[in-house]
Write a structure and sequence with these properties.
14 strands, homodimer, 4-stranded parallel sheet, alpha/beta
């Protein structure tokens, strides 16, 4: 029995298909587009199987043959992944959906699915010998990378907009990250890193500026499918800002299909955006392969505030190829979604995930999902960090002084 | 093969040893002291084994034979438990401890270990036919019970002190719980429930007012031992307010020892308290079997603000019988503990858990723990909800306007 940990083969440009070796630090293709990781799937079949994976520890590294880290000793882990897939019977009954599930990602460190990309990306950066990393972020991703950089003892610089939420700022600082605010958008933070990275010797790990974060995200989909007994659901709803999770899901579907581990029709990938920032919905309605920059982007769900996703063409391809769709909901509907799943199922979600709860109603009414279909919602994170977003009604004070 | 789910036998008074049947709703013994659950351990041995448990789903219900719920259909679950046991190599190196681990409980819904007690207690309340439940809380436990009550569709009333943290208030409300503040302490909330419970038809689920929450807490210890390959560590550090987790750990040790599943010396149970509220430390130093009420209790770690633990004699017995101890740290040391594990290991803990990080140094200096001993810290929760406690230094703002 071979001891090989990963079946990684090479990097391939998502646009021009140029191929690069995997043993060197590299951000994007020479053509400027994102690189994706390719594996030797025949080798994967020889190394493992669903039956074999079943007995492994319950974290995302159980799929290590399909992840890019070559040696297990380079894995930087905080127990991420293998989050619960919970049936939503009460909510399903209310919505008229008899096979509704949520993949609850609040169980990861930092309380969001961002931990997966950070664990994978930081591990690979460490394996490739990166000395320092830097990231432009709206908050949650930077926080996750700060956590894994601390765990992996790699210095990190995090730059986020001045109006970013308070908790990610506090947490980055608490991790010992060099944390800065910028009087601009995430795109300005990105430009700042681009401009200074040579001098500062930073490896830029901003969204899709490196190929490995997407691989970590892929494990959400592997887990959903394993938890459903290696079968596909009918549709998956994603709260969608940058959209990497959707691109990653599509890549995961194809890998599992090519391995012969799952058969049948691919699930429809459904992107749920904020009405105040819906570039993918606009592109979808126009049947366009790419997005236009969404001007005046605004939403309380900071994770959904991405006016022009860097990998828009990958996300849209995933949606089109799976007969999926993109739609948007208002901030009020998101918060009502959070309240609704709280009242019915006892979960406290972030507004981004609340958007998917809100979208269920619309999808059902427009008959875009059917009553008996197996539907999975990506519950991308818990609401615990969103103290400033959830307004608390004044509670009654009981008087015991008499 | 029998289908029996639980080997529950009866309830026994922790003080007078009077025995009660398990098929009726009951709070405490007629003598007023807490009841504990007893199992038929011979039956457990016939029903399952460590090898058998290994292949079960990664949540706390994998130990169902040693939990009180008789039928699996009554289990109210949000995926709680089987949290990661993470090695702390960087921090251990700094402290001179080569075998240091943390049980990271931030992965549960609500971000704390309270989920376990609530899942177990609410499930059993449902099984016994409770129509409504009520709880007096400092915040986190009430929040956890509100989540599981919503999931289990049982109406709940939560009463907490007026100065409770903001997030538990927001979350209880978001779960649809009847949530009240009280102009007094947690003990006043308890008295209010006591006074009104008959009229309101409330089943009182406040700490140790029912026997089942402790059983859920027990699973933390089962998991630590399973994750260490069914061996005992040398010592376990607990952030300690009410102390149920310590009483539960001792009960878990004895059950596993009697089953013959683990051999060797019991781990030393170490209670870490806040200097501003340290009744167990005072009792320990005085070699007393019970605590005195700690007047003027104050600490930023709300979970440690319990001036007179209801089950003090059980906690102190667990400490004495295992050659453990109780000590306290200041609020400043706790917050420094949170910062330290953040900088070294990438985890963001609540101040309560930070107290254990702070205590390591003292224990090491006083030679109460040895360099090569296997030490486990209970990381009782994440810091995500503590926005008001962690003061953020002003971050540098980068100017891109020029």
């Amino acid at each position: 029995m071979t001891e090989k940990y990963s079946a990684i083969k090479n990097l391939e440009c998502s646009s021009c298909n140029r191929v690069y070796p995997v043993n060197q630090i590299r951000n994007t293709c020479n053509c400027g587009q994102p690189l994706v990781v390719r594996y030797d799937l025949e080798e994967v079949k020889q190394l493992t199987s669903p039956q074999n994976i079943r007995s492994r520890a319950p974290n995302m590294w159980r799929y290590h043959e399909l992840l890019p880290v070559s040696q297990s000793k380079h894995v930087v882990s905080l127990g991420e992944g293998f989050s619960p897939l919970l049936p939503l019977k009460n909510l399903g009954l209310e919505c008229g959906l008899s096979n509704l599930f949520i993949k609850y990602e609040g169980s990861n460190v930092g309380g969001t699915f961002k931990a997966r990309g950070a664990s994978c990306g930081l591990s690979k950066a460490k394996e490739l010998g990166a000395k320092k990393v830097a990231i432009a972020t709206n908050g949650n991703a930077g926080e996750a990378w700060a956590m894994y950089a601390s765990r992996g003892s790699i210095p990190i610089t995090v730059i986020m907009p001045k109006d970013a939420q308070k908790m990610p700022q506090i947490i980055c600082n608490s991790m010992g990250a060099s944390t800065y605010l910028i009087n601009g958008m995430i795109s300005d933070a990105g430009k700042f890193i681009e401009k200074n990275k040579l001098e500062e010797e930073w490896f830029d790990v901003s969204t899709l500026k490196e190929p490995y974060r997407l691989e970590g995200k892929k494990t959400i989909t592997f887990e959903i499918i394993e938890q459903l007994g290696w079968t596909f659901p009918d549709a998956v709803l994603f709260p969608t800002g940058g959209g990497i999770a959707i691109a990653a899901a599509y890549k995961a579907f194809l890998e599992l299909q090519q391995l012969g581990w799952v058969k049948g029709k691919l699930p429809r990938l459904i992107a749920v955006q904020a009405q105040g920032c819906a570039p993918l919905e606009h592109a979808f309605l126009a049947k366009s392969p790419t997005t236009d920059f969404f001007h005046g982007a605004h939403t309380k769900a900071s994770g959904l505030r991405v006016p022009k996703p860097f990998c828009d063409f990958m996300v849209l391809e995933a949606i089109y190829k799976t007969q999926g769709l993109a739609l948007s909901v208002s901030d009020e509907e998101m918060l009502e979604g959070v309240r609704r799943i709280g009242h019915k199922e006892g979960l406290f979600l972030c507004p981004e995930a609340g958007a998917c709860i809100a979208a269920l109603q619309t999808l059902k009414e427009r008959q875009l999902i059917e009553p008996h279909e197996k539907i999975v919602i990506l519950g991308s994170g818990s609401g615990l960090k969103y103290q400033d977003v959830f307004v608390q009604n004044e509670l009654t004070v009981l008087d015991v002084s008499e």
